[in-house]
Amino acid sequence: MAAADPPPRGEAAPALKRSASIDRIPADARRILHRLAGDLWGGDVDPGALAVSQLRGAMTNEVFRITWPGGEAEGNGPRKVLVRIYGRGVEVFFDRADEVRTFECMSRHGQGPRLLGRFANGRVEEFINARTLSAADLRDPEMSALIARKLREFHDLDMPGPRDVSLWQRLKRWLGEARDRCSEEESNQFQLNKLGDEISVLEKTLSGLQQSVGFCHNDLQYGNIMIYEETRQVTLIDYEYASFNPVAFDIANHFCEMAADYHTSTPHVLDFTKYPDTGEQRRFVEAYLSSAGKKPTDGEVEELLGLIAKYTLASHLFWGLWGIISVSHRH
């Protein structure tokens, strides 16, 4: 297991597509597509005439782009939807029922794609005609400011349920899963016997600090951020890991993602020379805090920057444990 490379987490970075048969789509999903043809475009279409392309790069789900024939020729723009078939065995990472409720709530809030239908093991979503960001985009000053403002909006969403921080319980649960799946040799190699104490120390230290808690994305890599080029509007997608957490953790994770490129031959290797420097961090935090309509003080900026630096440690633990579990799951 130790020698295997963990897969990239990119859920929405369909750099490559391949044709697929409509038979790959479950029958109950095909019935939804047939209904949508009438509800959205007032037509009846042979399901066999639908163009089906599987989007590559998704790990936890199978994702298909469905295109209706003739839509673009009629001048109405492309008629496309997304069919997402849920993967198996991901319950170790998140509760699928919670993720579905989050997606539905996001849809009602006007965030991300609209929900068009649900079937037994998946859903049909609006196809977003926006561009998925690249690794390089995260370093662009204008793009970074847009992401910062969007992230503040995301954190301030009025989501249902208790606002309890999920980070520490999730880390402890994942550590238990990692221990169960590893041999004694692997456990020693990853020093899993020490991580429980490290998580507890980090929790005690960080939980005692004054900080803002919001609804966090928890996986803000470039493949989960899209932009409408004409309006420069940013949207965040894929909420499998979303939950209430300290907002500094979400920003810390995003900063760590600036060191990642999941479209290389070594997607699991992070290049921390690309981690944002002090100036980049400050600009992001200033854009984040000022998006509420009030210019932040230097003290407020420094306080959040200090918290973010500490929460990078939690981010490394978070995805390190994820990688160990993911590799064992694949094998």
TrEMBL record:
Q: Which domain of life is it from?
A: Eukaryota
Q: Which SUPFAM superfamilies match?
A: Protein kinase-like (PK-like)
**What Gene3D superfamilies would the database entry show?**
3.90.1200.10, Phosphorylase Kinase, domain 1
Identify the InterPro entries for this entry: Kinase-like_dom_sf
Belongs to which family? Belongs to the choline/ethanolamine kinase family.
Show the PANTHER family listed in the entry.
CHOLINE/ETHANOALAMINE KINASE, OS01G0183000 PROTEIN
Name it.
Choline kinase 2
Q: Which organism is it from?
A: Zea mays
**Top-down, what is the taxonomic lineage of the species of origin?**
Eukaryota, Viridiplantae, Streptophyta, Embryophyta, Tracheophyta
